[in-house]
Amino acid sequence: MSLLLEDIHKRFGAVHANNAITIEVEKGTLHGLLGENGAGKSTLMKVLSGFIDRDSGRVLLDGQELDLSTPKTAIQAGVGMLHQDPLVFLPLSVVDNFLMGSPGHRFLNRAEGAAELRKISEPFGFNFDPDAPARTLTIGERQQLEIVRLLWLGAKVLILDEPTTGISEIQRVDLFATLRKLADQGMIVIFVSHKLEEVEELCQRVTVMRQGRVVGETALPTPAERLVEMMFGQVITASDRPQVEHGEDTLVLSGVTFKEGNLEVADLSTSVAKGEVIGLAGLEGSGQRTFLGGCTGLVPVSSGTITVGGRSMTKRRYRDFMRDGVHYLPAGRLEEGLVEGLSMTEHFILAGEDKSFFIDWAAARKSSEESIGHFSIKGFHDSPAESLSGGNQQRLLLAMMPPGLKLLLMEHPTRGLDIESADWVWTQILARRDEGTAIVFASADLDELLRYSDRILVFFNGRIIKEVEARSTTGEQLGFLIGGKEPE
Amino acid sequence: MTLKARSKRSYANLAPIALAVLVAVVLLVLAGANPFEAFKLMGQGAFSGWTKTGETLMAWVPLVLAAAGLIITFNAGLWNIGIEGQIILGGVAASWAAREVGGPGWVVVPAAIIAGALGGMLWALLAGVLKTRFKVNEIFGGLGLDFVAASLAVYLVIGPWSRQGVASTSGTDLFRDEARLPTILENNRLSLVAVALAIAAVVFVYYLMRGTLFGLRLKAVGRNARSAFLLGIPTSRYMLGAFALCGVLAGIAGSMQAIGFHFKLIPAISGGYGFLGILVVLLAAFRAAWIAPIALFFIAMSRGSTQLDLRLDVDSALGGVITGILVLLVILGGGWQMRRLKRRVPA
Questions:
Q1: Sheet arrangement for strand A438-442
Q2: Which of A131, A358, A420, B139 shows its CA 20 to 30 Å from the CA of A156?
Q3: Pairing of strands A407-411, A438-442
Q4: CB proximity A363 to B under 8 Å
Q5: Is B247:B85 a contact under the CB 8 Å cutoff?
Q6: A260 and A228 within one domain
């Protein structure tokens, strides 16, 4: 028995999220799917589990083409997916959750369900109280419940999307043991992750994706540097930028801990000088976003101190940071930057200095057209933000930035942009740097990090594990650090 | 937007209206009435003679005021379901002033209107504080406050403000003449003050949303609070501002009901104009310029349809059915257009 994905394509607008994906997975293997965030892994798995429709391509199980048009038909065809956040209804009992997706039953038979649950759980050593509310389960137990439920529904292929994200080390070991047992029983298990060492530990084969394509497949074990190279590509940047003179420190963090929900980014001590560019590297969710949010007052500081331009900003609010010349450009351009339905002129008014009560539309339109010309944004003064392309949205956001900033914080400044737009964005940012603005940016693009940063802070599990000079670092070394490993 | 696109859109808006008329015709035929006769009677019921026209306009005033207020909250992304309660509080506060404030009309009437505005504002701010400080969804908070306000009105009518010796839900004693809106015709409630206030409210809201930074910021908050916050807009304060302004207009609507229409406090002082106002604003697609004619149509439908009962033996609820269907079809039409638009543009 084998699962064959054949020439799968999926586009989201201009983004080719899955480009000619062909993968074959043999029965009884633990197959890893590795790639950075945005490589197209999740899209592919959503196609497989029926959450989104593919544009073209076929999926065959044992030579039989599968109907994957909805999650329901996917599980009927034997493909079950364990989501990153287990699909558990917290207020409902364990047995109700177990029975939730069961087909055809008009009336719930809880006694029978509880018996089935016990029967399937036993070989794995899972122990559930069927009447306990799902809320009382740990994340690891919720995953177990999901696995059992999918098995009961007849899953022959089990997909796990980043399953180790929210669970403890002990739970992870248990999960891996379960997965090995499932594979031994003849299941097809696909393990999706961006964590190198987990794939190395668990899987027998691995497929690596990058930018929507399959870039390689190999049996494991294999040397880690080969996997890193496949994940990130060959980094060609020679770090031969001229050394720029930096001024006094703009941003100083001493022993700072930021706390955002469950995520804690702890014990940060670093400084950014006037005219310096700092890159934040790391796998998505390692703490870079929290760091950026913390440096602009969006995420509370639970200990330590922050100063900007010599002024203490600890415990200050976002608007105080703004007033003090700190500007934040998040990754979600339409979600956290622009307002859908408002025109470019309206955006310029909202971001502008003029705070008079009545709007002078004629003047606003004129100055907006000037900015549109100056920043070569493709669109009109009355174009709504959502009608602009990603590159032009980013241009608009840069055009809206106030002058004379002390500190500019950016998250994925060029994500999803074509090369021309990306270059243009960096021209603008570097012009700011030359004016003396300190720049901090997070990126998943090693090339970008090495090319534009002076120093790079590498994040791993909510800590800065390393601080490196961009000029003397290679892409390979950086790739290792991002994966939580010390390069030899 | 080009002129062509705009005219295309208005045609698309007409389709559901035509469909609603068709449904109305079918319903009338099913009820055994001649549709043309029925429409004529409805028109007459609303507008024949000064008395009827006056009554219609005096019902139109609070509906327009409520709808104008709702334009503000809708633009701020808020479902101000609490508007019924805000109208009631306006009516209660205006009644209090009408009963307690002495002196001539030019003292009592403004006092009652201001009291109504403050009452409505207070009630709206309560919903606003629940929303912004305590994260209570404004729909639930507003609905709760609606019930509290309605109970307060009933309590006052049968309790402290009940008529001498009678505890009846039919209302308080009539206000004295000085505490009523000045009218222009004999035996007619039509008041120019009321009509002027309604028109002023529409003009105010139109310019507020179109020509001021406050209006633009409010729109930004309503469409994307996160982006608005990151742009430096104090989103909670703007939401409270929207609540307060809507409450003022709703409160004035309540005061019009009290001192311009019923001349007393009754339990149903809001007349349901708050909820009806939501339909008006939905039909107007949140644009201030449209609320006056749409509100007039709604009121004409409901007042005119009473004629159907009397003359054609068709239940007068038909007017409500027709307006309801109209709103439903227009919203459906909007959703359908959106879907078509999305399909054409690659995501």
A1: A326-329, A407-411, A438-442, A277-281, A455-460, A463-469
A2: A131
A3: parallel
A4: no
A5: no
A6: no
Nearest by CB to A336, from B223, B227, B232: name it.
B227
The answer to whether A339 contacts chain B (CB < 8 Å) is yes
Domain identity same for A321 and A215: no
Contact between B230 and A340 using a beta-carbon 8 Å cutoff: no
> Is B227 close to A339, i.e. CB distance below 8 A?
yes
β-strands A205-210, A30-34 pairing: parallel
- Quote the minimal CA–CA distance from A109 to chain B in Å: 36
What would you report as the CA-atom Rg of chain A, rounded to the nearest whole angstrom?
25
Beta carbons of A216 and A201 less than 8 angstroms apart: no
CB contact under 8 A, B220 and A350: yes
Are residue A22 and residue A148 in the same domain, yes or no? yes
Last residue of a domain, one of A166, A201, A232: A232
Domain count, chain A: 2
The reply to whether A238 falls in a domain is no
Radius of gyration of chain B (CA): 21
Domain assignment of residue A241, yes or no:
no
CB neighbours of residue A239 within 10 Å: 15
What CATH code is carried by the domain that includes residue A47? 3.40.50.300
Pairing of strands A249-260, A64-65: unpaired
Using a CB-CB distance cutoff of 8 angstroms, which residues of chain B are in contact with residue A52?
Answer: none
Task: Inspect the interface and report whether the beta carbons of A349 and B226 lie closer than 8 Å.
Answer: no
Tell whether A225 and A255 lie within a shared domain: no
Domain residues of chain B, as ranges?
57-270
Q: Looking at the domain assignment, is residue A141 inside a domain?
A: yes
pLDDT (tens, 9 = 90+) of chain A, 488 residues, equals: 789 999 999 987 767 889 999 999 988 889 999 887 678 888 898 899 888 888 999 999 988 898 888 888 998 899 999 987 778 888 899 988 888 877 766 677 888 889 989 999 988 888 889 899 988 888 888 888 999 999 998 899 999 988 887 677 788 888 999 999 999 988 999 999 877 788 888 999 999 998 888 988 988 888 877 887 787 776 655 545 555 677 788 999 999 999 887 678 888 899 999 989 999 998 777 889 999 999 999 999 989 999 998 889 998 999 999 999 999 999 888 899 999 999 999 999 999 888 889 999 999 999 999 999 999 898 899 999 988 888 899 999 999 999 999 999 999 998 877 777 888 899 999 999 988 899 999 998 888 899 999 999 999 888 899 999 988 888 878 888 887 777 65
Question: A219 and A253 share a domain?
Answer: no
Which residues on chain A are in Cβ contact (under 8 Å) with B217? 350
- A444 and A331 housed in the same domain: yes
Q: How near does any CA of chain B get to the CA of A277, in Å?
A: 23
Give the chain B residue whose CA is nearest to the CA of A341.
B223
Q: How far is B80 from chain A (nearest CA, A)?
A: 21
Closest-approach residue (CA) in chain A for B224:
A339
Neighbours of A263 (CB within 10 A): 15
The Cα–Cα gap between A384 and A23 comes to 41
Q: Are residues A299 and A211 in the same domain?
A: no
Q: Hey, is A127 helix, strand or coil?
A: coil
Tell me the shortest Cα–Cα distance from A412 to chain B, in angstroms.
Answer: 17
Q: Let me know whether A7 and A93 are in one domain.
A: yes
**Mutation for B interface: A339, A347, A380, most B CBs within 10 A:** A339
- Could you tell me the sign of the dihedral formed by the alpha carbons of B306, B312, B313, B317, in that order? negative
Q: Which domain holds residue A65?
A: 2-232
- A357 to chain B, any CB pair closer than 8 A? The answer is yes
Distance from CA of B161 to the nearest CA of A (A): 44
Task: Please check whether residue B220 touches A, CB under 8 A.
Answer: yes
User: Within 13 A of A126's CA, how many CA atoms are on the CB side?
Assistant: 28
Contact B224 A340 (CB under 8 A): yes
Rounded to two decimals, the pTM is 0.79
Instruction: Chain B: give the shortest CA distance to residue A359, in Å.
Output: 5
Q: How many pairs of residues across A and B have Cβ atoms under 8 Å apart?
A: 62
Is A487 within a domain? no
Q: So what's the ipTM on this one?
A: 0.86
